[in-house]
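Weekly puzzle thread! Below is a chain. First person to post its structure in token form gets bragging rights.
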Amino acid sequence: MRVCIGGTFNILHKGHKYLIDKAFETAGKTGSVFIGVTKGEISQKNKNVKKHDERVNAIKKYLSEKRYDKQAVIRPIFDKYGPSIDGKFDVIIVSPETIKTAEEINNKRKNKGKKPLKIIQIPSILAEDNIPISSTRIINKEIDENGKIMN
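Winning reply:
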């Protein structure tokens, strides 16, 4: 199974790790996972975004810890689609925030005569206060990377 995921991955948190884990679970032992990490204008919407290399290195460290690194391909993406429209993928895994983008990707694939991707939507991972974990909340020191409330 060829799986794709993408995002800014500004601060690698529990929600990102769940997304990555689901991608590798879906790909299976013989599949592959493409991880698109935003670069350029798309990632600069928020002035608090870390440098691309820092974000990629955090992902690589996690992949190595989980022993996923041999099945992974990490590449920069410069828009919300990356290579998902033209690429040879079977599945796209998204969060509730990005489900519409996955549907747009499938529409674009259909218009090009390509097979649509199977869309797997994971749930938002909630912090202790039952609000989704996000890099913004971590930056604002509301929560830590695991969703624990900061006092």
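Puzzle host: Confirmed. Bonus trivia for everyone else. The two ends are 43 Å apart (CA to CA).
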